[in-house]
Amino acid sequence: MTTITTDDGVKLHCEDSGAGTPIVFVHEFAGDSRSWEPQVRHFSRRWRCITYNARGYPPSDVPQDVERYSQERVREDLRCVLEGLDLRGAHIVGLSMGAFATLHFGMRYCAQGAPARARSLTLAGCGTGAHPAVYAQFQQDARALADGIERLGMAHFAATYGHGPARVQLREKDPRGFAEFARQLAEHSATGSANTMRGYQARRPCLYELTEEMGRIDVPVLVMTGDEDEPCLEPSLLIKRTIPQAGLAMLPRSGHAINLEEPALFNRLLEDFLVQVETGRYAARDAATRPSIWGPGGKP
């Protein structure tokens, strides 16, 4: 275990396992570094695996000021972890909130015309609330969830939000794993979770307004989603269509926490991707195959 201090003075708890090419795992809103245990156990046999708790998630610091939580700040926290551990040529793997951070890192630090600061990006479960048809409602719902966390606490949040329509798949497949997920979620800081929901989730920009920036990402990208994670299906297609080196994997009968629901399949798909990248066999798709980024229906 180690601690990284960000450039705005927040201490982040990091764990470092294995040796070799580094993989940095960036967790979702309802998880923390522990959520990546099935991946760390598998990949640390051949790779160096780094997990960390985002700001607001103990034992990382929990800033009290909501203005210290934002999409930009979470992106820069990822940069601080890479710089603090002197990680060069790392693969970055994010889930949900962590996938948004990874995507924004890619737009800022892996764009055409500059040396990339990551070797590849994996975006799993990325896109909740991003579609223009639901974007404003998502922001409103996120603010209401933050209010509820502050008023009712994390145990109530875990018993409600934690049982949402894209979470029940884990409960049905792996009751023991779901119970662990819910227990860990209930242990989170109410202040940190509310500030993350209000400062980051409720204020992140709409992906559909960032297609030009996404299109400039110049490293291999793997997009992964469960086919029952409805809020992420259309955004995953948008990301796949927009980024020249993106591939899309859809896991059947799966919801949001795909790394926990289907760890063997998730690990195999991710490892196949990483090996292709490492061996130089993952290239941009032929321009002739690129559809309109909006699909057959046109821009929403």
From TrEMBL:
GO terms for molecular function: hydrolase activity. Pfam families: Abhydrolase_1. InterPro entries: AB_hydrolase_1, AB_hydrolase_fold, AB_hydrolase_sf. Keywords: Hydrolase. The keyword Hydrolase applies. Residues 22-263 form the AB hydrolase-1 domain. The keyword Transferase does not apply. PANTHER family: AB HYDROLASE SUPERFAMILY PROTEIN YCLE, MONOACYLGLYCEROL LIPASE. This is Alpha/beta hydrolase.
